[in-house]
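Chapter review: from sequence to fold.
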Amino acid sequence: WDPVAAVALTTPSVVTVRTAPFLVTPDGRTAERPSGTPVAVTTRADPAAVARAMLDAYGRGDATAGALFKPGAATVEVVGEIGTFRMHGPGTLAPGDTTIRFDASHGPGFVALVGRLTGGHRYAEVEAAVAAGVTRVPPWFTLEATAEVPAGSAPTWVVDLPAGEHAVVAGNPDGTAVTALGLLAVR
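The token string follows.
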């Protein structure tokens, strides 16, 4: 992630680094090989330290990293084959930035959608629409954010959720195997 790389250049303590031999393969890929040249490789970044360094860089050192990240607000993960998803987290959240962690680290990639339910519609209607094979977003599902989560990744996403009921839906990238994951009530 480019911001982490920039912060690591100015504040190396935010990352864990190891040295490993790498070379460029004939097809243009970078690969770790014993015959390669030793290169410093970042293996981990401390999210709170990165946020603090970024706030300091933008002259907002008085702000807290918690203003950017709320760990554990919700987690969406794909398990096994495409179409098997789970969501964990509290049922009720405060309005504002909500952190959602996606986990496709041991499974295929997926797409997630968050939408606010309007006009008195309920989460059960989202489940019914998904079960019926909906192919278009219903007008009462106000799409607020989408995230593409590549296979082998575990990104964190921050979305600003106003008060109301918000449904989280996930599916494989081509739109099949869609699953209604859960409701986030924001009060």
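Two observations follow directly from the output. The longest helix spans residues 47-57. The helical segments are 2-10, 47-57, 123-131.
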